[in-house]
Automatic annotation (TrEMBL):
It holds the Pfam family AICARFT_IMPCHas. Keywords: Hydrolase, Multifunctional enzyme, Purine biosynthesis, Transferase. Residues 1-146 form the MGS-like domain. It comes from Phascolarctobacterium succinatutens YIT 12067. Gene3D superfamilies: Methylglyoxal synthase-like domain. One of its GO terms (molecular function) is IMP cyclohydrolase activity. This is MGS-like domain protein. GO terms for biological process: 'de novo' IMP biosynthetic process. One of its GO terms (cellular component) is cytosol.
């Protein structure tokens, strides 16, 4: 199996425990955050807390947890670039090969009757889109999955081939950029409506 290390951090927990179990059973180290980590741990699956990787606690009510070179360096390093690999070694950063992230439920939050602007703003995900975009940018080396509907196909391909083919990696990157673009468009639309009041 080409994938050795995965970061799982999802708002929509559908199927995440099954995916984590599959990865763990196939020798993949799992890193996770908050609620996702809790769900994985409760299922008895080994998981490393992101703060143990970064050496830095989640701060500001979780606003800052994955925005760290130990995470982004691990995602963005081009494996065929000797300078990138040297930087990983120098800074004791282990590459991340698979990122499974979906974002805070902004649409669902602003659809609630009587939602305050403060509640809406706290549901603007920052670290999530940064990880999604970093992974999608480096799709040749990192597999990015943003939708639970993709888990079954991913597990099937990994079980059969031991890796994710180049076309699928690019398709998943396209889905990821579409996901973050739609997400930002929702936020933009919400703020526009606030200003029209």
């Amino acid at each position: 199996m080409k994938i050795k290390r995965a970061l799982l951090s999802v708002s929509d927990k559908t199927g995440i425990v099954e995916l984590a179990k599959f990865l763990s059973d196939n020798g993949v180290e799992i890193i996770s955050t908050g609620g996702t980590m809790k769900a994985i741990k409760e299922a008895g699956i080994p998981v490393t807390y992101v703060s143990d990787v970064t050496g830095f606690p989640e701060i500001m009510d979780g606003r800052v947890k994955t925005l760290n070179p130990k995470i982004h360096g691990a995602i963005l390093a081009v494996r065929s670039n000797p300078e990138h690999m040297k930087a990983l070694a120098e800074h004791d950063i282990t590459p991340i090969d698979l990122v499974v992230v979906n974002l805070y439920p902004f649409r669902e939050t602003v659809a609630k009757p009587g939602v305050t602007e403060a509640e809406a703003i706290e549901n603007i995900d920052i670290g999530g889109p940064a990880m999604v975009r970093a992974s999608a940018k480096n799709f040749k080396d990192v597999v990015i999955v943003t939708y639970p509907s993709r888990y079954a196909g991913l597990m099937e391909m990994l079980a059969k081939e031991g890796d994710v083919d180049a076309r699928t990696r690019k398709e998943l990157a396209l889905e990821a950029f579409t996901h973050t673009a739609e997400y930002d468009a929702m936020i933009s639309e919400y703020l526009k409506k606030q200003l029209e009041k």
